[in-house]
Amino acid sequence: MASFKLLYTTLTLLALLSSSTFCSGFPSFHFGWGNGGGGGGGGVSRPIGGRKYSGLFPGFYSHTCPQANDIVMSVLEKAISKEPRMAASLLRLHFHDCFVQGCDASVLLDDHPTFKSEKKSVPNKNSLRGFEVIDEIKSKLEQTCPETVSCADILALAARGSTILSGGPNWELPLGRRDSKKASLNGSNKNIPPPNSTIQNLLTFFQRQGLNEVDLVSLSGAHTIGMARCTTFKQRLYNQNGNNQPDSTLERSYYHDLKSVCPKTGGDSNISPLDRTSPMTFDNTYFKLIMSGKGLLTSDQVLLSGNLGKTMELVKHFADDHVLFFRHFAQSMVKMGNISPITGYKGEVRKNCRRVN
Ligand code: HEM
Ligand SMILES: *[C@@H]1O[C@H](CO)[C@@H](O)[C@H](O)[C@H]1NC(C)=O
Ligand SMILES: *[C@@H]1O[C@H](CO)[C@@H](O)[C@H](O)[C@H]1NC(C)=O
């Protein structure tokens, strides 16, 4: 009996998820269902990403630089064994790249006479990390396959590699992105969701990129690794709703622990793990913690408490089933990685990821 019920629940969930998840171009995930489908995209008005055909494909460097992924992985292994948090920092870099004029390595550019670096935006400043690791990967790739592997693809490869090395899923990764010749400080300030977002806000930011509520919940699962600064969750501890009260959805003992890391005044750059039970391991404890009121950011906890669409159910399902989470994370990463890539003769392959050629 019990297994019948389980089967039924699983099927319902599969129907729910497959109807709305996958609308990017390539069959992306080795062992996932619902691959070649395509399907809707959720009727979002003019999504930037999530197209049927992005122009990217996994074998893009098969002839021109077959060692590309091995080179990326060898640098990652060294960097992450030296500092496990680096995996989280690199995963986040790809996200902050893709949400600003697409996955085009704009996030890596330093200031230029004609544009300002995205590194100075509110979400990025004193926050983004890992640029030196990307530089090291780039210089190794330039030695082996000069002017071939784009910085945008390096970010995508590093995000996948970091996920794998932290214990998370592997997936087939479409490649062939080219690098932009400009950055957008504005775009960075406008398109990256703030940590105190409401659920409706979060969904709006994601829909603008052609991503849906399943992508929102699965990609938020990246917060199973890494750290956040006190300044990003202080509002929840002392004045969540302008009434000088803590966020009522924050579990009591966790609240007290957080106050010691993040005092009412000062301590803004003190850091706390996004997933306090296993901050270096890519697993589904992030969702389990949310289930018990221990999500660190408002944007984490509202996936459950916000009660919009299926997000609450998805948090529960991902907390119950790490395989399901891994599948969806992989699918949504491919979808995020397909946001408005530059292809063909547009853009360039930078020789140094920090500046245009
Ligand atoms: C849903 C909306 C999201 C919001 C509001 C958000 C916000 C944040 C914030 C505020 C931090 C801490 C930054 C700091 O203290 O300097 C952070 C860290 C992080 N974010 Fe997100 N994030 C979101 C989605 C994502 C996505 C989609 C990914 C990747 C797929 C991601 C990956 C990470 C990782 C891995 C870290 C830890 C970085 C480190 O330790 O260096 N986040 N995020
Ligand atoms: C950047 O933002 C400023 C102020 O919000 C605005 O005046 C300007 O047009 C924006 N530029 C771009 C390229 O979006
Ligand atoms: C989020 O934080 C910003 C900056 O501190 C603040 O201006 C804004 O009102 C906050 N939004 C919400 C919904 O609390």
Describe the structure.
The chain has 357 residues and is mainly α. It has two domains: 68-191, Peroxidase, domain 1; 194-334, Peroxidase, domain 2 (Orthogonal Bundle), CATH 1.10.420.10. It has helices at residues 2-18, 68-82, 85-98, 131-144, 151-165, 185-191, 199-207, 213-220, 234-238, 252-261, 285-291, 298-305, 311-320, 322-337, and strands spanning 227-229, 271-273. It has a two-stranded antiparallel ribbon. Helix 8 (213-220) crosses helix 14 (322-337) and helix 13 crosses helix 14. It binds protoporphyrin IX containing FE (HEM) and 2-acetamido-2-deoxy-beta-D-glucopyranose (2 copies). One 2-acetamido-2-deoxy-beta-D-glucopyranose binds next to loops.
Count of DSSP H/I helices: 14
Computed over alpha carbons, the radius of gyration is: 20 Å
Q: Based on CA inertia axes, which overall geometry fits?
A: globular
The percentage helix is: 40-55%
Are any ligands bound, and if so which? protoporphyrin IX containing FE, 2-acetamido-2-deoxy-beta-D-glucopyranose
Sheet with the most strands, sense and barrel status: 2 strands, antiparallel
In the CATH hierarchy, the architecture of the largest domain is Orthogonal Bundle
**Which percent band covers the strand fraction?**
under 5%
Function: Removal of H(2)O(2), oxidation of toxic reductants, biosynthesis and degradation of lignin, suberization, auxin catabolism, response to environmental stresses such as wounding, pathogen attack and oxidative stress.
Main location: secreted
Active site: 96
Signal peptide: 1-25
